[in-house]
Structures are given as C-alpha cells and as structure tokens.
Amino acid sequence: MESINRNKLFIASCLALTVTSMTFAIRAGMLGPLGIEFELDNKQIGIIASTAFWGFPLAVIIGGMVTDIIGMRNLMILAFVSHVVGIVMTIFAGGFWGLFFSTLLIGVANGLVEAACNPLVATLYPENKTTKLNHFHLWFPGGLVIGGLVVYFFGADFINLGWQWQMATMLLPAVIYGIMFFGEKFPVTERVAKGVSTSEMYSSMLTPLFLFMIVCMFCTSITELGTNQWIAVILDNVSDNPILLLVFVSSIMVIGRAFAGPVVHGFSPPGVLLVSAILSTIGLYWMSVAEGNMIFVATAVFAMGVTYFWPTMIGFIAEYIPKSGAVGLGIIGGAGMFATAIFQPIIGGVYDAQLVEALPTGSDLAMYKAAAAETAEAMEYAKAQVKAGPYILKSMMVLPLFLIFAFGALYFMRDKLPKSHEAI
C-alpha cells in the first residue's frame, strides 16, 4: 500500500464516524423538544428515532455487499451526500413525516460510513485489526461528547439557539471529511487482496460462530445504543442535567477505547466481551436505584461496560472470521442497528405506559408533558418520570445478563477458536 495515505484515510474515517455519532447525541437531546414543538407522544418519538436505526442496517448490509464491486471510495461519497442532505432536511422539517424521512436518510449515511470504514480500517491495519477498530470507534463516543456539549451549551440554560442550530453544527465536520476523502486512492478490501472467493465469503457467514455472534450483537447494541439514545429522556428528573450523563458516559468510552491495545491483548477479545457484559449489568441496575451524585458513579460503571462492545464485536469478526469480508462486517453491524431499531418504539411505548400508570387515573399524558414549569401538572409529570425511567433501565438489564452467559461460554472455549492468521 505504498501509494495509499493510510493516516489521512484513517483520520478522515474518524471524522466521518464523529458526524455519525453526533447525530445520535444531538437527536437524543432533541427528543424532548421535538415532542413538545410538534405535539408528538413518546411512541411517535421512538418511531422517528428508530428510522435512523432502520436506515443504518439497510445501508450497512447493502453497502457491505457492494463494497467490493463499487469500491469503498464511492460508498464514502454516497455517505457524504446523504449526511449533508439529511441534516439540511431535518433542519427544515415541519412535522412527523419530515423528521421521519430526514432521520432515515441520516441513518443511511451512518450505515454507509460503517460499511466503508470498517473494512477500510481492517485493510489498512491488517496486523492490528481489533485495536485499530477500537481506536477508530473511539470517535463514536467522541462524537457523542461533542454532540452532547452542543446540546448542552446551545440549550435553554445558555445561548438558547434551538435544535435546528444544533443540527447545523454537524455540517462542518461533514464537509471536512468529504474534502479529505476527495481524490484519495483507496485500497481494495482484504478479502479481494487475499483472493477469497465469493462462495467462501458467504459460506463463512453460515457457520455457528458467526450466527452466534449475530445474536450477541443484538444484545450488545441495544444495551449500548438503546440506553444512550434515551438516557436524556428517561433520566430527565433523576439528574439535573441528563444530557451531561450521556457526555460523561461517552467521555469514559473515549478514554477506554484509546487504551484498547493493552486491554484487548491482555484479556483477548472474548475476555473483553465477558467483562463488558458483567459491568454493563451492574451499571444498569445501579443507575436504576442511584440517587444524587451516585448516579454518576453508576453511569461510570455502565460506561466501562459498554465501552468495548461494538468495536470488539466488529474486531472479533475481522480477526476470527476474516473470510466474511466487508459483507460480514456489514451484516454484524447491520444486525446491531436492526435490533436497536426494533427496540426504540418498544422503549417509547413502555415508557409512556409507565408514565400513565404513575400519573393520576385518567390523566392526559400529552397535557402533563406540555405543562408549564412549576405548575401542579409539571410537578406530577416530574414525579412520574422519576418512577418510569428506572423501570426502563431495570427492564433492559436482562440483555447484558444473557450476555454474561453467552460470552462466558465463548471465553472458556477461546482455545478452540481459529487463530487470526489461520482464518484466511
């Protein structure tokens, strides 16, 4: 790869992922204001949020299937155009359907970034795949930190510019990554370079190990992304600044992924996944019962748990099942977002049901939600949120609890897994 500027490609990939994750953070901060401005209930908000997760698996799976045909560079051009158009459409959306389609397009852009950049990073750094994928994916929580701070400082407590301006901030890094990628030469994927046939690629994805990892990806992604997307809503009256909890969680994830090298090499990918499941379970439960400043301690434990989930799952496929190629990486990522897309409206619906149960019998949820601050209705709604939020967290705890057993089995069978250099 003498003529390939892998450092520039890696940095541009990180910027593209930063835009991807900023969309999650800023959307998480927008959910409450959108519901009030457009008179949407939590189930409708969940449907809007889920469209990003629907667009993602659609793009990442199809993108993975055509990567070897059209090339990673062309996928990134499509991602750039989709990001810019989707952001602009969101800014000028006038209601439910405008938000629905613009969020869907942003989800497609996010999926195209993953479809192109995961195999790109694995190809650029064949000697250190899992570690470099962790370094690449540290910009997902990194973007959450940036986006969370945008929401916080652009919000009513500071300059009060509104959610449209918050969305507009993403145009700058999007344009920068588009410029950086333009004109650069991209390598072919590792599968193509190694001469692995298409039939071998698809056969590798029908193995029990690959199918097992898809099931696990369902649970890891919902545990991480499902919680992070709703944390500002479900903990709105548990913490004075719930969006800062998302920033706090993401900051810990950035630091953890930056030091992924010694962690991955010390514990092995299966060991990292097992420890992550244990900490995630403890963190979710603790968040559901913590009060005051202890909520930050609980979220720190949760953050340490979800830090390595996504990149280590991607890295596991790249290292242990590399014949699956870009399609395998696309399918594993798409599976995670597909599961999260299904789960978003469920979270919203269950949250609404818990709020109604906590409010006085026969209450109009929309009226209480839109009540002016310090009114009796607003105080009742705040009390209902304090009850409903922790219920959601406890319910989600079953997912990492299952993963403890799944990754525990994987860890104790690690010596039977194919070695990376033997797998292709």
Give an overview of the whole structure.
- The two termini are 19 Å apart.
- This protein has 19 helices and no strands.
- Helix 1 (6-37) packs antiparallel against helix 8 and helix 13 runs antiparallel to helix 19.
- The protein has helices at residues 6-37, 42-70, 72-91, 96-124, 129-137, 139-154, 163-168, 171-181, 190-194, 198-204, 208-234, 242-258, 260-289, 294-306, 309-320, 325-358, 365-369, 376-396, 398-412.
- It has a single domain (6-422), classed as MFS general substrate transporter like domains (Growth Hormone, Chain: A).
- The chain has 424 residues and is an all-alpha fold.
- The longest helix is centred in the C-terminal third of the chain and has 34 residues, at 325-358.
